Each structure stands twice: as C-alpha cells, then as structure tokens.
Amino acid sequence: MEALHRALPSQPGSLPPEGATCSIEDAIRFIHQSAFPASTEVVQIDRADGRILAETIRSDCDVPGFDRSTMDGFALRAIETAGASEQTPVTLRIAGSVSMGSALSVCLGKGQSCAVPTGGRLPEGTDTVVPIEMVERLGESLVLTRPARAGEHVTRRGADFSIGTVLLPAGWILRPQDVGVLAAVGRTAVRVRRPLRIGIVPTGLELVDAASEPGPGEVREVNSHLIGVFLRRQGAIPMLSSVVRDDPDELTYAVLRAVADCDAVVVSGGSARGERDITGQVLARLSDRTMPAVTFGPGKPTRIAMVHGRPVIGLPGHPASSFIVLVLFLARLIEGMQGGSRRAVCRQTVRLATPLPLRRQRETYRLVRIRDGWATPVDGEAGRLSTLFECDGIVVVPADGTGLRAGDEADVITW
C-alpha cells in the first residue's frame, strides 16, 4: 500500500457536489482536451486493413503513368480518319505492335497505326484506339469506314490520380481497396494509430467469474465481456482486470495499475451514490479534476476523471445502462483519441410504433426493437439482461420537448 499512496496526487480532487451533472458533449470535450492521443506506428500495407491512418497520403506519381488502351485494337491519330465512310474508306498501314510491360519500340509516321492490347501503352502521338471488331484488316493495312474520335477507348495518364492528389486523409479507416491504391502509388508502408489499450475493471461483492457456479446472492460477471467485445469492434484492445471487491484501497490499486498499462480505463459498477458505491470517491481521490456525473437516462450515473493523463470512466453496473454509455459515449471517446472511427456505431431513421415520453426532464435514451422500419421500445428494468438482449438500437428522446409521438420519425443509433 505504501507504493499506492506514493502514486496518489499531492492535491487530490473532490467528489462533485450532490446532484451536480454535465452533458455528454461537455464530457467528450473535457476528455478530448485532456487525454493523450493514441501513439503511432508504421505497418506494412498488407497488415493495414482496418487501421486508422495517422498521416495524409498524397500521390507522388501519375496513375496510370501513361496513356493506355481500354480495348484490344489499333492505336492511331484520330485526325487521319476524318471523312472515313463506306464510300470513302481510310486505309492505314500497321507499323508494329505494343507488348505489355515493355518499352515502346514503335515510332509511327503519317498514315500508320499500331496494334495494342487492353492496358497497353499508346505510342507517342496517337490519341485514340479503334477496337479490332470495328476495322477490316487487309494484310498489313487497316480499312476504316467511319471516323475515330480522339480519346475513344483510351485512359489518359493521371486519369486515376495525378501527382500531388490527396488520396487518403489522416483519420481514414483503411479498406482493402485503399490498400490497392497505396500499392499503385508505391506506398508499401504507412503510419497508423496504435490500437488503444483500454483497461476494464469490474467491481462488485456479488460478482463471480462467468465460468463459476454462483453461490447464494452471487451473479456471474457480465459487463467485462460485453465491454470487451464492444471495444474490439471499435478497434481497441481490452485489458481485463480481475473483479475488484467494494474496497476503496483495492479499487484504487486496480485503477492505478490499469492506468499505468493502458490509454484509458473503464470501471464497471460502483458509480452511483451510496454506501457501497465507491467509484466516484476513488476517482476524486486519484484525480486533480473529476467531472460531474453525465446526465442522460438510463445511463446515469457515469463518472469521469483524468488520472495521470488517462481518462477513467465509471460505468453503471446494470448491463443495459452500461451498454448505452458504451454506444453513446465510449465510442466517441475512442474516436477522438484515435483520430478516427471504426464506425461500429451508426444512425438510421425509423418511425415510432408507440409514444416515447420524456422522462425526468432530461435527454433520455430508449432501447428499441426495429422491425420493417418501425421501432418499438423494449420495456424492462436496466438491470435485466433480457432488456438488452431484445433490442436493436437506441432512440434519442430530446430534453427540449414533451417526448415523441407514435408515428413520428426518429433517429435510432444502431451497432
């Protein structure tokens, strides 16, 4: 314990006054202004899928690097086919052919053409390609009965990307097709954000491991598994602590140990005011600045503090409430620290099958089941797993009204 007390700040903060609250936006702003951003590393592009770029990628070459044919045919000068018709055909001599991947050895003179394959480089001075099926070949000559247009069946140099083009901005989530673009411009490695390591500290006297048989009054610990899978969807690495009993010194030690190894820490449970709910007191003890509880239901209370430059979030113990905080709050925290989002959370518009009244005059979030574009609230206590199990999304009920009516359109957050 001596080492633990040496790690405590010399002037610890204090628990916010009873009833003090802040908005989600205030809490997000507080963390983004105070937390360290995720560090970076360089990875090979073959291992970069799903990673968040930490640099802006610009093309340092033209792609393609030459004018190329989009058809098997003959490259020529369009102007030399002017006036071609059935009555007055134009004849051009075939002066050679283009080989894929080889330097051009053909130099065309007036009245000449060159055979080119799909993707082949056009000889200097030619500006169009006439497909094989559109010409008549007579020995080493072509006969054209209609004029060609400049640029037909040709991809110009730099048509995909020209030198200096911004290809991918910092914060972009790399996809397989992006990796293909990187290879096309010669980038075989890129700088990306390291995955955030987020500690998970479950608390509660009644909790036992999921593999254990609960005794009288005990329940299996659920939240760390729920939180861990959600974090992985966001591209973070969950770092699980063993269950902490409701003891201030034990929780203090667990938080400090997690802070030393992680970029952020989530404490599950013990965040409400009460005799056994100690998260707020411990965070006030460790931090120079502790935010008031975040105001939204049913996710309240949610404690936030900075400990040694790392955000520590105290989540409600009820799984449904905890999950709402993950979706609405922790996903945005990760996005801000990583400089990008894995988009594990998205929004869509639905219609409400039943009214959703405002509760307690604060912004409320209701778990809903979505069927054929209609949302129905999943009623149940926050502590019931079935409430969470049966839902597909979260509807926001704004604080500046009386609620939402049946048939109203509403934004629903899904995952």
Report on this model:
With 415 residues, this protein is α/β, with parallel strands linked by helices. The protein has four domains: 2-39 and 194-338, MoaB/Mog-like domain (Molybdenum Cofactor Biosythetic Enzyme, Chain A); 42-63 and 159-193, Molybdopterin biosynthesis moea protein, domain 2, CATH 3.90.105; 68-155, Molybdopterin biosynthesis moeA protein, domain 3, CATH 2.170.190; 346-414, MoeA, C-terminal, domain IV (Beta-clip, Beta Barrel), CATH 2.40.340.10. It has eight helices and 29 strands. It has a six-stranded mixed β-sheet with strand order 8-5-7-6-10-9, with no helix packed on it. The protein has a six-stranded mixed β-sheet with strand order 17-14-18-22-21-19, with helices on both faces. It has a five-stranded mixed β-barrel with strand order 23-26-25-27-29. Helix 2 (24-34) packs across helix 7, helix 4 (223-233) runs parallel beside helix 7 (319-338) and helix 5 crosses helix 6 (279-286). The chain is elongated and about 95 Å long. Mean pLDDT is 87; it is low at 1-12.
Cα end-to-end separation: 42 Å
Count of alpha and pi helical runs: 8
Instruction: Classify the fold: give the CATH topology of the largest domain.
Output: Molybdenum Cofactor Biosythetic Enzyme, Chain A
Q: Which radius of gyration do the C-alpha atoms yield?
A: 32 Å
Percentage of residues in DSSP E strands: 25-35%
- Tally of strands: 29
**Largest sheet, described in full?**
6 strands, mixed
Structural domain tally: 4
Dominant shape: elongated
The H-level CATH homologous superfamily of the largest domain, spelled out, is MoaB/Mog-like domain
Q: Summarize model confidence as the mean pLDDT.
A: 87
